[in-house]
Amino acid sequence: MTLLGRRSAIVLLLVGVLLWFVWSRTVQPQPPLMRTALIMGTLVEIRVYDQAGGEAEADVNAAFAEMRRVEQLFSSAIPSSEVVRLSAATGPLEVDAETARVLKTGLRIAHSSAGAFDMTLGRVKALWGIETDHPRIPSESELSAALVGVGPDSLQVVGQLVSKARPNLVLELGGIAKGYAVDRAVELLQRKGIRSAAVNAGGDIRLLGDRQGEPWRIGIQHPRRADDVLLTLPLVNRAVVTSGDYERFFERDGVRYHHIFDPGTGRPARGCQSVTVIAADAMTADALATAAFVLGPVKGLALLQGEKDVEGLLVAADGRILKTAGLK
Amino acid sequence: MRERMKLFSWLRYATPLDRKLLLAVAILVAVSFALPLRREDGAQVIATVQDRVVFKAPLNIDRTVDLQGPLGTTVLQIAAGKVRILSSPCRNKTCVHMGEVHQDGDVLACLPNKLVVHVESKTLAGKTGHDFVSR
Amino acid sequence: MILSVAENITLEQTRQRVFLALFVALAVVLNTLEFLLPNPVPWFRIGLANILGITALFCYGVRALWLVNLCRIILGSLLVGRLFGPGFLLSLGGGILSAAMMSCGFSLGRKRIGPIGVSVLGALGHVSGQLLVAWLVVVRHPGIWLLLPFFLLFAMISGIVNGLAAHFLLNSLAGHAAFRGLRERLDILTGQQPDLHQQQSGN
Question: Would you call C123 an interface residue with chain B, using a CB distance cutoff of 8 Å?
């Protein structure tokens, strides 16, 4: 004390109090647990807010494992998947209950969208090869050959028995499988007692509960400006899926060829730039977004309006924005 | 020598303790410039070919991707939070020699193959204050 | 002049008060002057007003320093019309940390630290305090610390400039009768022979 003197002791105390103040201000509320993984060819991010530490970590890993299991069932690129098995089948095939459930949901939306959502476009998709290194524009005759016999009526699911109208029908569940995987992950987290979490599979999002008492703030990607959002949605307990022509595409002679095909023509649907669907589950939102995108802004809006507990936002090819009643 | 004398002539007004203090502060300033605190670590990697975004990925997941440019395939590697170009079809391989980068604003470029890779510290959701962006 | 002991103390106190008031007034003037000057780089300020704080410190001690600097900040902000705004908070944060650093340096390095050392410490405290407040109140963004090296460099330079100014001010004040004892204290610091400073004592 004699070394310092009374005044400098007071000053030191003051500095100490100031440092303590800074420290106390900088200590954040418990940060969320954030984990990322590559599943289904896209980046999946899971955030858990209400629990942290080892237990939630294990739950998140279990959720990733569940999504990988779903990928094994529905990926067209995995030879042992149910989808590849079904595509190769020449007669009726018994599938597991889970596959039957996804196919039934898909068929329901295929019928309600008058075939705009189509799970039988495997051969069309293969012709374009948009997700490969060498995409190309197929000829008219190739496309019409690939479109023979497609449509919602070409597939029937009775119990767990799936039958195709034509043996060479190739299934493609890209428009629904990712949403289903997200749902499975969220349901698993919920079963583990987590009440505040989010799963984001490359922009297909499902939210569990709210974020620390506040709604989640979800931005909708601007379809033409990569570094901008169209609008912000405050959401609780919802799934949000956007289908856009900017996600996966290639360009030839200034024309953009994207990955969402119109089952009527076998070519990329031209009515919309993007469609965002907000629903209770990601599987429904995923399929409906694809369906509305193919239908175009007017019919697409009508489809979404007709669905119970579903809201949506469509950006037409000319940039016009259409919203369902609940979003206005 | 004369110039230096002039430049530091004010030092004669400083006490010995002042001079020691000045030395310490000068070292502090030098160290602060050398500290990595100058820039934030990046969060995501964005690759463009001919000004079009062809690849976007977070820095914290290791992966290797092939990127197509007009000359051919450039191989990009993300490992241990850093990005580098593994191989390139260009002649001089400047891009490969640029080594690893990981900080906000860092750039790797292969101009012959029209490829530019840059590191950003924030995703779109982070920049616009959202939890997530649906796309 | 014949004065009683009691009167002598009162006179000394009055003198001190008058000079401190003068210091505060001068500090506010310098503060305002600097505010009015064109500023090429926002945020960077030389902090000329601190010259008076340092002078007060060497004349009357730590308490005088706090008095001059705090009064200067409050009056100065009042004068340029930004009392209690974010700019005021920045000034206050910088001022408090600056005064704390200077008091610490002055007390710990008693009789060995000179105006230049104190001034550099004060300038460092000032920029650190400002950055701290800016980070806590204005922009909660860690990117703000990217500015720290530039601020530190600037603080060092402005600290030296202000310290030199304070040094010369103190030496000219030391010649005045009102600052008895200051001459001796300064000579102890610099370790210089008294003949370098022509004594012009009016005693």
Answer: no
Taking the CA of residue A202 and the nearest CA in chain C, the distance in Å comes to 27
Closest Cα of chain C to B128: distance in Å? 14
Residue of C nearest to A21 (CA): C136
Cβ neighbours of A252 (radius 10 Å)? 10
pLDDT single digits (tens) C156-178: 999 999 999 999 998 888 887 77
* B14 contacts C116? CB cut-off 8 A: yes
The whole-model pTM stands at 0.61
State pLDDT tens for residues A229-252. 999 999 999 999 999 998 888 888
E-state strands within chain A: 33-39, 42-48, 93-94, 155-158, 161-164, 197-201, 204-208, 216-221, 229-235, 239-244, 249-252, 255-258, 272-279, 311-316, 321-323
- Report in angstroms the alpha-carbon separations of B56 from B52, B73, B76, B78: 11, 17, 12, 11
- Contact A13/C at CB under 8 A: no
Contact list in A for residue B124 (CB cut-off 8 A) is: 219, 221, 226-229
| Residue B30, Ramachandran bin (φ over 0: left; ψ between -120 and 50: alpha; else beta) | alpha
Under 8 Å between Cβ of A43 and B57: yes
Greatest alpha-carbon pair distance for chain C in Å reads 65
User: Which residues in chain A have Cβ-Cβ distances shorter than 8 Å to B134?
Assistant: 203-205, 218-221, 240-242, 276
Residue indicated by tokens 């040094």: C167
Pick from A325, A233, A229: which is nearest to A274 by CA? A229
Q: Single out the residue of A284, A310, A314 nearest to residue A299, CA to CA.
A: A314
pLDDT given for residue C197 in this prediction: 43
The confidence score (pLDDT) of residue A171 equals 93
